[in-house]
Amino acid sequence: MKQTLIIANWKMNGSILANSKLLIAMLKFHNKLQHVELVICPPFPYLHQVKEYMVGSNIKLGAQNVNENNSGAFTGEVSADMLKEFSCRYVLIGHSERRALFQESNDIIAKKITQAMDAGLTPVLCIGESLEQREKGDAQAVILEQLSCVINDIGLKKFKSVVIAYEPIWAIGTGQTASPEQAQKVHRMIRQYIYGLDPILSKSISILYGGSVNEINAAELIKQKDIDGFLFGGASLKSDSLETICKLKI
Ligand SMILES: O=C(CO)COP(=O)(O)O
To answer: How many domains, in total, are found in the chain?
Structure first.
């Protein structure tokens, strides 16, 4: 059975003290997480701190971004090999905040995925439509374009190791989550698209939902057939919310 994947994206939040409190609280419930794979994605400067706390636990480390180049004159950037050296297992790629604020194109995102995979990291490809695109009836086309650009670039064989995270932009940080039915409809569409390319992969690939997930709405969302876990931000900074979500009966 596929393990439920729960990824905490701390975004640009935290401090050494605040992280310590959160991590100590997490370590109290980590051993009850047999049925989930919990991944923490802190800002780069805190990777080492989180890594130290996670020793001996089954909580995994992830990063929020990676550069599309190997090494060289890219001031301020971080390579996939560096993340690997810091014990990262996962890396978020193509988050909507990076697409919008840092002009990341599908082309750059495909390059980042290749870098991540070459370093042995699992890329978490974030996709999703804006409110305007949804209202115009373009959501499906936007999502399939985001997926197909990457698949065409890296090839289906490599794509087998990618995790997909569907995060409708209008639901991120707004408190307005997609209803379980809305989310399921898109997840099903994504899985059917993958089925058309590779029926076996459509069963094994993990498709996460993200966008204002909290301890209240998570229970209904996770019951949806095609939702395999969560990528969440705000609620991942609160240990009680995180614990409730991780302990949901799936
Ligand atoms: O962007 C997100 C996770 O990557 C979602 O953020 P929120 O859970 O704060 O809406």
So the answer is: 1
